[in-house]
Specification:
With about 325 residues, the chain is of the alpha/beta class. It is about 40% helix and about 15% strand. The chain has a domain at about 5-180 and about 235-260 and about 300-315: NAD(P)-binding Rossmann-like Domain (Rossmann fold), CATH 3.40.50. The protein binds uridine-5'-diphosphate-4-deoxy-4-fluoro-alpha-D-galactose.
Length: about 325
Amino acid sequence: MTKILLTGATGYIGSHTWLALVDAGFEVVGVDDFSNSAPAVLPRIARLSGREPVFERLDVGDTAALSALVARERIDAAVHFAASKAVGESMEQPLAYFRNNLGGLISTAQALQANGVHCFVFSSSATVYGTPEALPIPESAPLSTANPYGLTKLHGEQLLRELERCDPRWRIAYLRYFNPVGAHESGDIGEDPRGTPNNLMPYVAQVAIGRRERLQVFGGDYPTPDGTGVRDYVHVMDLAEGHVAALRRLLDGADSMTVNLGTGRGHSVLEVVRAYERASGRRVPYDIAPRRPGDVAACYADVGLAARLLGWRARRDLAAMCEDSWRWQSKNPQGYA
Ligand code: UFG
């Protein structure tokens, strides 16, 4: 069986991808330092996957420990999620973001290279498109960043492209995520943000369950159909399956690839609020607040290349994203705590 190293394995996208990989017949070796996740996810992965998780608590910045693990487990390929991801926090602590995200990436690549592993899936983001010039956004669109977090994704991509140029044995999938939301359909794993959620859907979920009073809608005067921001929300299980598809292609010998993972459809903040109210049967009171600095009016993916290269398309719609998020939120009102 093909063995995959999964870094950031107990985080939001990592934990869902773990299940998708097992489902697709891969063996997973997970690592995480629990800096933004909880050990409580592991027994749930065990139950949902029907296997005892192979896991080591480890900071990917510890190259020696990671390299020893890659050797011991005879890893074939890696999916690298381990990174910090909060835009606002990155503006308060840019150096911590550079060190953690770029340092962690370099260390992980070194641990793999030391063991002759060159098959790598990199967790990138639509944030590398900056303010999009045209919609939907193709992978060929100009790249720019507006904050330290975005810079770690853009420079992470550049660093890996240079690595490939110097050593063509590397085969890398650069996956640019749009807005991952929702949860596993069991409702037993999901997104469990620490403190106040930065992102829309977890915030809406906490209003619906009564943990927070009202949503602040950041901006009601964008040039969009209802004046609120438009994003390409993609179900986290679709995203997880996109990783499986990319990994399969690389393991089959495909060249490196840069691919958007989104649905190709935009939804406004108010559409998300209404869809969540329908899914939960709860009200989500909101106020229109000033725009959030750095936000763009609209952002959604051109998904043609993902379909052509990976044979992958997002299957779950906004209603399913909200229903699955609500199942997780209502079964786990305080997250994993
Ligand atoms: N929003 C609100 N109220 C909130 C939170 C968000 O109105 O409390 C709005 C935002 O203004 C935006 C939309 O909901 O219009 C989505 O916001 P998110 O914070 O959920 O997502 P972003 O699109 O801003 O950010 C996401 C990822 C980032 C990534 C970025 C660009 O969280 O990591 O996409 O790809 F950088």
